[in-house]
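Hi P.,

Sorry for the delay on this. The queue was packed all week, but I finally got your sequence through. Input first:
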Amino acid sequence: MAQAGSNQRLICASIALLVVLLQVGASYGDNLRELSVSDWWEKAGFYQIYPRSYKDSNGDGIGDLKGIEGKLEYLKGIGMKAFWLSPIYKSPMADFGYDIADFVDIQPEYGTMSDFESLVKKAKELGLKLILDFVPNHSSDEHEWFVKSEQRLEGYEDFYVWNDGIVGSDGQRSPPNNWNEAFRGSAWQWSATRQQYYLHQFHRKQPDLNYRNPAVVEAMKNVLRFWLGKGVDGFRIDAVPWLFEDEQLRDEPLSGWSQDDPLRPEYLNHIYTQDLPETVDMVYQWREVLDEYKKEKGGETRVLMTESWSALSVVQTYFNDSNGRLGSQMPFNFQLIMRLDQNSKASDYKTVIDSWLDAVPVGHAPNWVLGNHDKRRVASRMGGEHMADIMEMVELSMPGVSITYQGEELGMTDTELSWADTKDPSACQTNENVYQQYTRDPARTPFQWDATANAGFTTASKPWLPVNSNYATINVDSEQKADKSHLKVFEELVKLRDDDDFHSSQFGTAVLGQSTFAIIRIANGRTYFTLVNLANAQDTVNVAELFTKFSTTKSFDTAVVRVASVSSKRAAKESVTLSSIQLDPYEALVVQSGAKNCVAGLLLIVVAVLTLLKLR
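Then the structure:
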């Protein structure tokens, strides 16, 4: 009986130890947030392709659909789950595809509808989702709808926003109000054919559609249905805030900015041309089209990604309303672009990231955007190539969806172009002295595949935009062969997310030392710390204090490096002491605590004890 009692006590103690061990890393303080995801897109890496600059297959110096199809294995290889294409529709190219002459046809220099269907087929074979750019605010002035509207043909009279303008005391006619377009200048253009002004909030060749006309709303919904029928998996919706404008066409008040140039868009406070309540409702209607299609045809969720550079309080409304009506799955999070720069401190990173997380409604996955075709590249705007790894580590260590613009995984930098080489209409509408303030071309130059002529982008002697002179070292081929490279850091980060499931976990942010921003992720007994030193000086940090800060039940003083930036002298699997890690200038790391291995080892001890008892 005494031996039986002893055995029982040992067994009970072992079970108690097992319970404690299973709880390691599973009890946290109120400061940790939690996210659980289930749908495919909530844990996906998306990749933006700018088709004109991705890969040229026919030697004309312009990227095309066949070029994209030929490089899909690259996207699969770096761990992407989906890609979205900037516009590929038929267009006179006044704004390189954002002036659409036919919403349901392909721009000939990009290929044919058969080429697109082949691209969809190849993507599905590889398990990649394809997202199209949907440009609903405007069309080209060469679209048949505009031609018919300009001629006042029946059914199209009010497809666009028309107005007589104002006739002054001198008999001269002028626009109806002071509204400016996004590219500088009046947002109104006179039509000699119709003898009225039409609204264009972007280029004069991009007339605004009239969303107060039900026929326009239905026509654009049919565009979505057409491409869903072609097999696309969702849409990125361009320029959402501009969809509706004030029906009274009231003058907009002055903003107090750009007082020396009343034609710049910054001169006005756009209270009558952006972010009207009707805009959000339109997004909800488009979501209903996608959900109805899934209900009818089956398959996986089709997604909406919305572009809005508006205040967080506005962007927040695109997710859902108070009645549970759903909108965009991914209202783009541009906070890392808008609010962080090369002078930002660790505390700024925490403020910006936490404010976005606070804005995302419960039950929705956050998303993270570092760059796109309209903004300077990450490495250039954030202060140097070393920032490429830092920003990717921040983005890919956070929960939810990541969106990567082509070339950011390589650390590609802006290509500064001469006035003669400039193509962007936003810059071309200015002059040689100021165009660099407006141009978007530097981030749109050809993708750098290898060190051959024109970076392997084209066999043409001259691509549509010049290739960056640094292509000999910053390219896919060179970085794949290098011992350490930005591409390999990116790939390791994506692999870590997939293998160790960063998607459903508890997480938090912190500031450590003098200049280090930290992210903590805890899931399934594993604890990860992302550490980025944002200063050009060493910083010694005590990471172990985060166990206390976030009230975890167990702390460890050792960890192993999982991913190290190119600038780091450390290597994967190297051991570090959490209570005192010295980070070099601009060093970035992801380290894993010993929780997983420790728990596994101690569980083996428990099993051994129970086995011995059985033998007794």
